[in-house]
């Protein structure tokens, strides 16, 4: 292919080592001057990295790799590192492309200089440029995709407890429902008299309790369960395959025993069943929240199931 590095390019590159070194030096000079003339190119870097001297030394570190074949593992690895370095420094691809394009200005300047060493064919230099550019920009895209994925994940996590937040939990439940799925229990619960902890001991102690609750809940959950905090001391436990009343009693009371033994606290809960009580996260939450209200109205330390009048203890005396 016209723009693909080949055997003839490899030969030409190896035969013009002096010329390639001269080309690299000219490119470094032009690129450094461009940065001197417009320091905003790297405006997002810390001050210690905004000097022309730093940029010059940064480029010079690439000399040996550039003078070698682009097919070597070291050359490909170097191009990948360039891509990652630019994305993490918030340098847009256009800056990288623009600075690397100065390679051709350097080539034509040397070509017009009768005292300059012989250069490899321009097409070979273009192929070298394209090889490095493709690797760097592919890596740039990969790094950007990783950052977007990381940001998306953080947007779905409750920063205090590490459980899913409402957005993340609703997305998880919606995904479960969209795929062929078994019935599931939507359990919403909150602590009895949590406000007294904040009033008596302060919010840092309240935060510690919430973090401990989330840790206990994770240890009691199964692999396919999803845990979320909606706000305050209100948590949701999404439990696929858990609909039988006896199994629900065992799960809720088992968690209640652990919570009371370790923290001396109790909770109330409301349970909605998918798809019996709702087919969306919002509908299930509304049904479970109404059941939670009935459990609290019945005296707390209890749980209720949507669509029934029965009230069950979360913790037996």
Structure in words:
The protein is α+β, with helices and mostly antiparallel strands and 317 residues long. It folds into two domains: 147 residues, Globin-like; 148 residues, Reverse transcriptase/Diguanylate cyclase domain (Alpha-Beta Plaits, 2-Layer Sandwich). It has twelve helices and six strands. It has a six-stranded mixed β-sheet with strand order 2-3-1-4-5-6, with helices on both faces. Helix 12 links the parallel strand 4 and strand 5. Helix 5 packs across helix 7, helix 6 runs antiparallel to helix 7 and helix 9 packs across helix 10. The longest helix is centred in the middle third of the chain and has 33 residues. The protein is elongated. About 2% of the residues have low confidence.
Brief overview, please?
With 317 residues, this protein is α+β, with helices and mostly antiparallel strands. It is 59% helix and 11% strand.
What key phrases describe this protein's structure?
single chain, 317 residues, alpha+beta, Globin-like, 12 helices, 59% helix, elongated
SSE map:
Blueprint: H1 7-15, H2 17-37, H3 52-60, H4 63-67, H5 73-88, H6 93-111, H7 122-154, H8 166-178, E1 184-191, H9 194-201, H10 203-220, E2 226-231, E3 234-240, H11 245-263, E4 267-274, H12 281-297, E5 302-305, E6 311-313
Parallel strand pairs: 4-5
Antiparallel strand pairs: 1-3, 1-4, 2-3, 5-6
Helix pairs in contact: 2-3, 2-6, 5-7, 6-7, 9-10, 10-11
